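Email to the structure team, subject: Enoyl-CoA hydratase/isomerase family protein model.

Hi all, the expression group asked for a predicted structure before they design truncation constructs. Nothing fancy, just the C-alpha cells so they can compare against earlier work. One-line instruction: predict Enoyl-CoA hydratase/isomerase family protein, return C-alpha cells.
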Amino acid sequence: MTAGGKTTRSPVVLVTRPREGIVAATLNRPHRANALTEEVFEELGALCAELSRDPSVRVLVLRGAGETFCSGYDVGEVGRVAALPPLELTTLLERQAAVIAGLRELPQTVVAAVDGVAAGAGLSLALAADVRVLTGRARLQAAFVRMGLSGGDMGASWLLPRIAGFGFASEMLLTGRFVTAEEARQRGLANRVCAIQDLMPTVMDTAGQIAGNSPVSLRLTKQVLQANTDAPTLRAALEREIPLQVVAAASPDVREAVTAFRERRPPHFAAGPAGTKEERA
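Reply from the structure team: attached below.
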C-alpha cells in the first residue's frame, strides 16, 4: 500500500479493542513467524505503559498473526546483537526484559492465545501472561541452550519453575525440546487446549468472564496471587491478604454486587478505583 507515494507499513504490534474492557495485541510479523525485534519490544513496552494508566481496560489478549504465536528473537538479528559490546548488550537486554516485567506487572489480566510455536523469548511472553489458552497444534520450546545461550533469558528461569515446577522447568531449559499442547496442559503451562478454530472464541469467552468482574477485585487478586506465590509461610500470606481485602471491601463494587444479587441482575462495575465508567469499546 502507498500513501502520497510512500509505502505504508503495517504496525509490528496491532492493537484493537474487540469488546468493552478488552484490548487485543497481535504480534504482526507473520512473514517472520512473529519473531521479536527491538521495534516489537518497543511497541509492547509502550502498550504496557499505556494500559497501566487506563482503568477502562480489564483484560489484555496477546496473540500472534498467522499460524505462529512467536518464534522468539529474530534469528536475523541474533548475530548483530551478540556482537554488541558488553555494556551495550546489557542495556539492550535490560530494556527488553523490562517488557516481560511490564506484562507481568500490568494491573490488567493478560490472556495469551497460543497457536503454533512459542519459542525462546516468545515462550517468555506466553509465560508472563496470567492465563494461557493453546491450540492442539501449539508447541512450546525454551530454545535458548540450542542457540548457545543461557536458559536464564527473558524471565524464563523465574517464570517456568513457578508455573510448571522446578523439575520440569529444568528439563525444558536444559534440553530445549518441544513440549506439546497436551503435555503443557498436564504440566500446568496451558489452562486450556482447544481446536484451532475455537482458539479466539475460547479466549474471548475467558476474557469476557474476567472483564465482567470488578476491576478493583481483579487488580487486587492478581497482585496478591503474585506476591503470595513466594510467601514464606501461610501466616505471611494471610497478613498480606487482609489489608488488600480491606481495600476491596471499601470499594463501591461490593455494594453494587450485593444490590445486583438482591435484584437478580448482572452487576455493573465502575472502570477503576476512581469510579470512572467505561466509555471505550
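DSSP finds eleven helices and eleven strands in the chain. Residues 215-263 form one domain. Ping us if the truncation boundaries need rechecking.
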